[in-house]
Amino acid sequence: MPEAEITYAMVIEYLEENWTANEINSFLNRTDEVISFISRNPKQYLYSKKKEVYRAVVTKQISLYYRIKVKEIELLVFWDSRQNPAKLKV
């Protein structure tokens, strides 16, 4: 299973344990919106030359890292910005 799917599921699980259905739906809707923006204009978000990836902020706490390939956009990981950035492996 791709890392993005695993980390997405982890975010949902955390929200289910700690927040209401309203917050979960808000996160799901915002994620869909960001992925739609990425698919229409993948270069609009912050690019890291060092890691050769883009970062789209989904919420204040969660960012989505992705890479543009020749014929596809690869979603890499949903990252909690409160974590140590040195642990981010993309």
From TrEMBL:
The record, for Gene3D superfamilies, names: RelE-like
Record protein name field:
Plasmid stabilization protein
| Species | Roseivirga seohaensis subsp. aquiponti
